[in-house]
Design a protein that fits this description.
single chain, 2 domains, 503 residues, two-stranded antiparallel sheet, 5-stranded mixed sheet, mainly alpha, 21 helices, globular
C-alpha cells in the first residue's frame, strides 16, 4: 500500500490552509525571534530610523516610503512593530503570488509555488532587516497581479490599482523603475497588451501614477547629486568582486533552498515502479505562461546587465523584489501534472528550510562569542548604551538629549534607542543629513560617540575637525547580552553643552 504524506493530502484537499499556515508560521518565527533575542536591530535599520525620524521626501538612500513606515511602526510598537511590519510585507508578497497563481495555474499549484518561495533565502533570513527592498517586494508582486487582471483577464478597472501599486513601488525603491520599464515593453510588444492601450483606463492610470510620485520627483530634481552619492556606495557593498558578478552570485545563491526542494521532488535517481502522488491542474494558456516566464527571468537578467554596465549596485543590493515569481515559474514549467517523488523527504526538507534558519540565528547569537569570537551586530547592547549617554547628558544639562553624532555604526544605535529620540547628525558625511548641522549641535547641545581602543581615547579626525572644542570623557565599557570571550565594548564620548542663556 502506498502512503501519502499529510502535507500532500492537505495540498489536495485544503490548499488554502496550507498556504496560510506556511505564510503565517514564517511570519511569526521571523517576528518573535528578532523581537525576543535581538538586542540591536540588524543591518541598516538604525540608519533607516534616523532618516525616517525626519520625515523628509527622500534621502541619499532613495525614496521615502520605507523610512516613513519604519519610523511609524517603531513609534507605535518599538522594534517589535518594525519586525512585524517586515513580515507583513513578506506575507502580502506571498499572498499576491498565490492570488496570481490561482488565476494562472489553479489553487493547488499556486500553493506549490508559494511553498517553493520558502526556499528562497531573500524572503527569510534577511527579512527582519526592514528597508526599501523588503517594502518593494509586496508592491512588485501586487503590480504583477493587478497587471494580469487588467490585461490578461481583461478587467480594465485594475489599471487604477496597478497605477497605485507602481506609484507606491517607486516611492519605496528605485528598483521599481525596472518593473515599470518591463511592463511597458511587455504591453507594447504583446498583442493582448497592445490592444489594451486602445482603452482610456491605461492613460488615466498614467496620470494617477504621475500624481502619486510627483512630490518625490520634485524633490529628486533638486537632490540628484545626493542620490548619486548614495548609488556610489554600492560599489563597496560588492566587496572585491565586481557588482555584476556579486549580484549574479547572490541571485543564484538565494535560490539554493528552492533548487534543493526541486532536486528532492524530482526523485532522481528513481526506483522502478515508484508511484509518486500527483497534483494536477488545467492547462495553462500560452500568454499566461509567457507572462510568468518573462517576469520571473527578465527582472533578474536586466538587473545583472545593469550592474555590469554601470559597475554599481544601487538599489539592487537586496534582490527580494527581483525574484518574487521564481517559485511560480518553476510550477508553470513543471507541467499540468506535478509528480512529487519522495514526498516525505521533501516535506521534511521544506520544514527544515522554514524552521532551521531562525534556529541557526539563535544558536549563532548564543555560541559565536564563545566559539569564534565573532561579534554579532544584532547582539550589541543598544539600550544600555543609549540610556547611559542620554542620562549623562540630562544630568549635566537638565535637558533631554537633542542630537547625537559620531561613529556611523554606534551613533545611529544611540539615536534609535535613546528615550528622547534625538536627531542624528551624519558627521562622517554631513551633506547626507540636511536636517542637522554642526552648528545645531553647538547651539543646542548633543553627545558624540566613537569606539575607543584600550590605549587610545582620541576622537576620530572628522569629529575633532568639526568640533575642535570637544573634551573627551573617560571611556565607558558595556557588556554584551552574551559576552563569551569577547572584550567589553569600549566607547569614547564627549558632551557638547548648549551655551548658557544670557543673564
Amino acid at each position: 500500500m502506498h502512503y501519502v504524506s499529510l502535507i500532500v493530502e492537505f495540498l489536495r484537499g485544503r490548499p488554502k490552509v496550507v498556504f496560510w499556515t506556511a505564510a503565517l508560521t514564517q511570519a511569526v518565527l521571523w517576528t518573535l525571534i528578532p523581537a525576543l533575542f535581538y538586542s540591536a536591530p540588524p543591518g541598516g535599520v538604525p540608519i533607516l530610523l534616523a532618516i525616517g525620524h525626519e520625515f523628509v521626501l527622500g534621502s541619499y538612500l532613495g525614496p521615502p516610503l520605507a523610512f516613513w513606515l519604519g519610523e511609524i511602526a517603531f513609534r507605535l510598537a518599538g522594534a517589535f512593530g518594525l519586525y512585524a511590519l517586515a513580515q507583513a510585507c513578506i506575507v502580502v508578497t506571498y499572498w499576491a503570488v498565490f492570488a496570481l497563481g490561482r488565476e494562472i495555474v489553479g489553487t493547488r499549484h499556486a500553493v506549490l509555488g508559494v511553498l517553493l518561495m520558502v526556499g528562497i533565502a531573500a524572503f527569510t533570513v534577511p527579512s527582519p532587516d526592514f528597508g526599501p527592498a523588503i517594502l518593494a517586494a509586496p508592491f512588485w508582486a501586487l503590480a504583477l497581479l493587478h497587471y494580469w487582471r487588467a490585461v490578461g483577464a481583461g478587467s480594465r478597472g485594475y489599471w487604477f490599482l496597478l497605477a497605485l501599486d507602481l506609484g507606491l513601488l517607486l516611492l519605496s525603491s528605485y528598483v521599481g523603475l525596472l518593473l515599470l520599464l518591463l511592463l511597458f515593453l511587455f504591453t507594447l510588444f504583446t498583442p493582448r497588451g497592445y490592444r489594451s492601450l486602445s482603452y482610456p483606463e491605461p492613460w488615466i492610470a498614467v496620470l494617477l501614477l504621475a500624481i502619486v510620485v510627483f512630490p518625490h520627483a520634485y524633490w529628486l530634481y533638486g537632490a540628484r547629486e545626493l542620490v548619486l552619492s548614495g548609488l556610489n556606495d554600492s560599489v563597496a557593498a560588492a566587496g572585491r568582486v565586481g557588482p555584476g558578478v556579486w549580484l549574479l552570485g547572490t541571485i543564484v545563491i538565494t535560490h539554493f533552498g528552492m533548487f534543493l526542494l526541486m532536486a528532492l521532488a524530482s526523485g532522481f535517481p528513481r526506483k522502478r515502479r515508484e508511484r509518486p502522488p500527483e497534483i494536477d491542474r488545467n492547462p495553462v494558456e500560452t500568454y499566461a505562461r509567457w507572462f510568468v516566464y518573462v517576469f520571473a527571468l527578465a527582472p533578474a537578467l536586466a538587473a545583472v546587465a545593469l550592474a555590469f554596465a554601470t559597475h554599481k549596485l544601487g538599489p539592487l543590493d537586496r534582490v527580494a523584489p527581483l525574484v518574487v515569481l521564481s517559485g511560480l515559474a518553476v510550477v508553470v514549467a513543471a507541467g499540468d501534472r506535478v509528480l512529487l517523488y519522495r514526498e516525505h523527504i521533501v516535506s521534511s526538507a521544506w520544514l527544515g528550510l522554514l524552521v532551521a534558519p531562525p534556529l541557526m540565528v539563535l544558536i549563532g547569537i548564543a555560541a559565536l562569542p564563545f566559539v569564534a569570537s565573532v561579534d554579532p551586530r544584532v547582539a550589541q547592547p543598544a539600550n544600555a548604551e543609549a540610556a547611559f549617554f542620554a542620562d549623562s547628558y540630562a544630568h549635566r544639562t537638565a535637558k533631554p538629549l537633542p542630537y547625537v553624532a559620531g561613529d556611523p555604526r554606534v551613533a545611529p544605535l544611540v539615536a534609535m534607542a535613546a528615550p528622547s529620540r534625538p536627531h542624528l547628525y551624519f558627521s562622517w558625511a554631513p551633506e547626507r543629513s540636511p536636517w542637522a548641522t554642526a552648528a545645531d549641535l553647538r547651539a543646542q547641545g548633543g553627545v558624540l560617540v566613537w569606539p575607543a581602543a584600550e590605549n587610545n581615547n582620541a576622537p576620530p579626525a572628522d569629529l575633532k575637525t568639526q568640533f575642535p572644542e570637544l573634551v573627551p570623557e573617560v571611556p565607558r565599557s558595556f557588556p554584551r547580552p552574551v559576552q563569551g570571550f569577547l572584550p567589553l565594548i569600549r566607547l569614547g564620548w564627549a558632551v557638547l553643552r548648549p551655551p548658557a542663556p544670557p543673564q
